[in-house]
Amino acid sequence: MRRKFIKFWKGPGLATLGFSLALICDAVYTPGNLLSRELPKEISMNRRVWILLVVLGASTIFTVRGAFSKAGNQEKRRAINLPGPASQLPFSKAILTGDTLYISGSIGLDPKTGKAPDKIEDELRNLFDDYKATLSAAGMNMDDLVYVQVSCTDLSLYEKFNAAYRAQFAKDFPAREFIGAASLLRGGHFEMQAIAVRR
User: Fold this and answer.
1) Strand locations in the chain (E)
2) Interior CA angle at 78 toward 146 and 87, to 5°?
3) Which of 108, 140, 154, 180 could form an S-S bond across to 135 if both were Cys, CB 3.0 to 4.6 Å?
């Protein structure tokens, strides 16, 4: 909404403002007008100069405001990337926009081998540790998650996942989707992506 407002004032809104001011000033200072007859001739003759100054002043104000607003929006958006091999991939670990964090899909791989551990418990621990590190880099924690999507290659692991997942939260659980997948990269059993909003 704010961006639309800025675009309106930088475009047709500003033109409308200038045109309206011109009409008002012309109506007030038109020769023969009561107010015009009461003012000195110098003021009446220079009315168009004043109109121009008003329009230029308004144009400058809204142009500067638009520039600062655009810079502010760019500063609010930044990529969150953790050190390691994953940082070389063609996507960001997460994108922080304002107070909202969009987290890419993550698999609980062993950082040493780059593959899923043999034990499901170790894979889940790696997955949640990775999520906590990503959230921490954005100044958040697991309780800031509002939506989670989990892809799983073996739906019989549903209860085992839930047991580990439940222990990660101190407050209300986020909304979640748990879906089956034919396969995941590097032998992973779970891939999780999520959205978090700072409390």
Assistant:
1) 77-80, 94-97, 100-107, 145-152, 175-180, 190-197
2) 90
3) 140
